[in-house]
Automatic annotation (TrEMBL):
InterPro entries from the UniProt entry: Coronin, DUF1899, WD40/YVTN_repeat-like_dom_sf, WD40_PAC1, WD40_repeat_CS, WD40_repeat_dom_sf, WD40_rpt
Lineage of origin: Eukaryota, Metazoa, Chordata, Tunicata, Ascidiacea
GO CC aspect terms: cytoplasm
Comp. bias (Acidic residues): 913-925
Record flagged with keyword Cytoplasm: yes
Pfam families, per database record: DUF1899, WD40, WD40_4
Sections of the chain in a coiled coil: none
GO BP term (any one): actin cytoskeleton organization
Residues in WD repeats: 74-116, 591-633, 634-675
Keyword vocabulary terms for this entry: Actin-binding, Cytoplasm, Repeat, WD repeat
Function recorded in the entry: F-actin regulator involved in anterograde Golgi to endosome transport: upon ubiquitination via 'Lys-33'-linked ubiquitin chains by the BCR(KLHL20) E3 ubiquitin ligase complex, interacts with EPS15 and localizes to the trans-Golgi network, where it promotes actin polymerization, thereby facilitating post-Golgi trafficking. May play a role in the maintenance of the Golgi apparatus morphology.
Residue stretches of biased makeup (Low complexity): 402-415, 421-437
Region described as Disordered: spans on this chain: 378-466, 861-925
Protein's name according to its UniProt entry: Coronin
Amino acid sequence: MHRFKSSKYKNGVAKVPKKELCITDVSVEAPVSYGNHVSCGAKFFVCNLGGAGGGKLGVFGVDDCGRKGQHPMLAAHAGIITDIEFSPFYHDTFLSASDDSTVKIWKIPDSGVMNSGSYSPASVFKGFKKRPEVLQHHPVAESLCALATGGEIKLLNMKQEDVALNCEVCSDTLQSIAWSYDGKTIAATSKNKKLFIADPRVGQQVVETAAHGNHKDSRVICLGDSEKFATTGFTTSRSRELKAWDPRNLTSCLQTIEFGTSTGVLMPFYDADAKLIFLAGKGDSSLSILEVVDGTELISQASQTMLPDQSKGMGILPKLAVDVMSCEVDRLMQLCARQIVPVKIEVPRKSHRDFISELYPDTDSDEIVLTAENWLSGTNGQRTKTSLDPSTRKSLRVSQNAPTVAAPAAPAEPTEPVEPVEPAESAAQAAPAAEVVKNTTPTDTKKVASSSPPPPSESKLPAPEKKVEVHSKFRHWTGTVLHPTTHITNIPKLNTSLSGSCDGFHINTERVAFPLSTPGGHVAIWELSKIGRLPSSDPPSLQNTAAVTDMRWDPFNSHRIAVGLENGKIKVWEIPEGGLKEVVSEESFSLSGHYNKVICVRFHPLASGILASASSDSTIKIWDLESQENCITLTGHEDEILNISWSSDGKYIASMCKDNKIRIYDPRSSTEPIKVATGSEGSSRGGRIVWACSDQLLISSGFKSGAREIAVYDVTDMDRGQVESQDLGGSPSTLIPHYDEDSSTLFVTGKGDTTMHSFEVSPTEPHLHQLNTFTSDKMHQGFLFLPKTTCDPRKVEFARAWRLSKTTLVPISFKVPRIKMEYFQDDLFPETRDLRKPTMTSQQWLDGKNVQASKISVCPKDMKPLSEAPKEAPKARKYESYDPSTYKTDEEKKEELLAAMSNRLDLDKELEQDTMEGVDEDEWD
């Protein structure tokens, strides 16, 4: 009889607002993941912004609108963000997953995100063996979230900050997950075209069936309290389809609806109160509205609305956030390439003065009825309902004023458990807690089934470790490309096929050297004073006759450059004053000694004329350029050397090798390594190494499990191996690190990247603290920094670099925003080492001397340090809340009262008789 029943929402329409009511001027590339790229809470919504692999999120209020091109973005991850999920209980808390193998929990302040890169996650889960794909918060239990990674579902306990359970579902990648309405089971679709229903507390799948005919992307949602699920996917003929399923009988689907051929997956959203399904395809510009009814056909099509732009992603607001006084029953946030459109679903009514209760049944509240520990121990529950009537609606819950529901940290009397609503048939013991943030590593947990839930007193969990948040003075740095008049453009025939051991080019304060793809190993030399467009003809170059592998300018002689070659030779060239005018084929001299190709060359940081070179023959040779002889040969490598680095004091050399070993040499005392550490397993693909924190730490870049990684080693205890690591997503290029010793900032990027990441390096654990990122519109082939003396402290510029793309070379300035820029920011600019001149000759260094560089101030003579600036007097408040009468004594108040009464009675007024003159007393007689 459902066909004769009139729906309350049959006249509902999707309204697209005017452009000024949308969020415009944003930039969104096509995110590549199984997520919907938008997640909504009742106060904020979060979406992917910027480049597809930039790892940045935009955080907006649900009612925000207008131009947001300069809106600060949250630098959440180092790689692609795969999914975002808001907590249904705390409207300021959300989770983000990324292919950098981390899941982070964020808490948004009431004011929103106000500064890019200035926020740290509340906690971090990391170390997943496979990429985290999809997040789904438990519908009933607080602080419990399911994560699909590979073919497993992991339950993250956000309060206890550990991985509570593992549930193996299938051997292929899971594409989507959805909890049942009561939170007992979870449904999942996978790349092997199947639908699974699993009970995580048992730790295994319950039932499975073939869902769709194509392995392309798929989705699954729960259809409220009907106990049914719906999936979207593709048929064998690549047509999109929607299927309805009853988990009690998966032999066949209840209904199938096809939506034509397209490449974008259908993103489904369900309103359990109105029983409406919304479908939006990625890349489509339409929105389909369907209704779930009781009858032969479970789902009936209602309407379709054209949207103003193609959808990159979409999310639906919780029912607690809709505007009930305008008859808005739902709101979807459409993520487009240049804008975010709030699509409102409204039911027309004549009057908007009163709350229309028939459109808004009681909805799920944010009241907590079940903790994660209760659910894990076998207890089930049901969400409480609340009215959407504005006159009775409660305020939204946020984490700052949320009640504490975690288990006690110290041994105490067990708290009274929540009264069971419906006990589970079987429950699994919680897995051992995984470490979080500084040592969070989700491990394979054992699935142990028990016949009855353990008593609450036996499920005591340790208190989460307290975390110290480090606030860096450089966390708000900004990278700015300088004016186009300073660019060098039209670079011809750039060689982009050099190995990862080469920076791609090299630069000093006067000229730049970059390899050409022409035969003969040409290295072009160009003066930085000749900015603008290069001529169409080949630039003047050095002809090396063999393929170039690396090049380096002498730090103490801006005219000398050393070039490593594939034939094992090193050629040293002298550039005449004014630069090259033509192709030069005669070098100043060459160094021969390696039996295989040269991997990299490095000049000594303090001594003039000392050059170190690493070769594929597994040796490191140290050359005296004054005598043009090989002075020292370092051995001990068991495979090809990947990279070498001098310590800042010039005493030691660190090397990275394909045998996954990090070695430290004292070249003047021994030809064998004095310390050895084990590096990442995937480091044989390529890597770099750099010293940090006054040579207390070594930082390497390499690969692990297919993802790029930077790792930290303690020089004083190399036997520990890695003391800390950071995943930076998957990419074939080697990360090239640069360490700025004055700000203790580590910059890392790779060839072919568009994003440069940065970290503050601390000598104490934790060593790495993520800072801001710099993103460019083109892929770069190299990124090199100039000496500190080239920076402009008047503009609070703490670093300057040159970025090389295929055809352009542009300068980039890194600054820290400050208010009192008329003062020298001495807290940002300590005295720096003067590395413009050598401290020793080559012979002095070989004889064992260690003369360190003197330090100089970069403060301009006409600037006063900020530390000496006069302190400003406190400004008077516009609205002063201080009331002096509040602090008067009783005696003072009494005197004021008597004085006021005297004034009213005019007791001090002069009387007429006071002015009259009297007579003497004897005159009265």
